[in-house]
């Protein structure tokens, strides 16, 4: 069974068994809180923070992207502000993130060689020549913990400084420990 076939089979089961409270057509689609987290499937934002759609549930908008870095998803952040009046943004990075290993510095030169870095690519030259932003955040002179904290502080500050993010929005940063499930607040 292909991945998509398996997913659709699961969806059919979901349709048949989902609780009535999940009939959300008439409900608000985003909360006043927005969570930005890595797309890594090990980072289960809904379970980690107990998000639940429906009356009495803790709701938040969730944006998933590589590394949980806001630089490439500002369009979604601004949509959330406009649609839901977001008052708080949580940025969540996590231990063992691929962003610690896949950095722009490593990948950009590698794209010059079609055999390396997962090639062949349709056209390696444009990537290598441009300043395409991957947002990897590992540094050879830092521990993973130091890289996570530094990148988190960069991302929180970039949202606080962003001209289109309201000054009243509270932005905070967290490291999600895959080992324990904990979301550990980092002073930013
Ligand atoms: Zn990650």
From TrEMBL:
Recorded catalytic activity of this chain's protein:
hydrogencarbonate + H(+) = CO2 + H2O
Among Pfam families, the record links this protein to: Pro_CA
- EC main class here is lyase
Q: Known EC number(s)?
A: 4.2.1.1
Task: Supply the name of the protein.
Answer: Carbonic anhydrase
Cited function = Reversible hydration of carbon dioxide.
- Source lineage: Eukaryota, Fungi, Dikarya, Ascomycota, Pezizomycotina
Which co-factor is required? Zn(2+)
Which segments cross the bilayer?
none
Write down the InterPro entries for this protein, in alphabetical order: Carbonic_anhydrase, Carbonic_anhydrase_sf
**Which keywords does this Swiss-Prot/TrEMBL entry list?**
Lyase, Metal-binding, Zinc
UniProt similarity note: Belongs to the beta-class carbonic anhydrase family.
What species is given as this protein's source? Discina gigas
Keyword Lyase in annotation: yes
């Amino acid at each position: 069974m292909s991945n998509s076939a398996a997913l659709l089979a699961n969806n059919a089961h979901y349709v048949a068994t989902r609780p009535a409270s999940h009939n959300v057509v008439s409900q608000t689609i985003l909360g006043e809180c927005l969570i930005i987290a890595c797309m890594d499937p090990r980072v289960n934002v809904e379970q980690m923070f107990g998000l639940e759609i429906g009356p009495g549930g803790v709701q938040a908008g969730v944006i998933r992207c590589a590394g949980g870095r806001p630089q490439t998803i500002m369009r979604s952040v601004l949509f959330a502000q406009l649609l839901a009046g977001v008052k708080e943004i949580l940025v969540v990075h996590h231990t063992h993130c691929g962003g610690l290993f896949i950095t722009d510095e490593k990948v950009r030169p590698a794209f010059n060689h079609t055999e390396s870095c997962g090639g062949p690519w349709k056209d390696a030259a444009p990537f290598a020549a441009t300043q395409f932003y991957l947002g990897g955040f590992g540094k050879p002179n830092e521990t993973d913990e130091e890289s996570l904290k530094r990148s988190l502080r960069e991302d929180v500050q970039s949202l606080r400084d962003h001209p289109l993010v309201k000054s009243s929005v509270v932005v905070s940063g967290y490291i999600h420990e895959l080992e324990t499930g904990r979301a550990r607040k980092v002073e930013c």
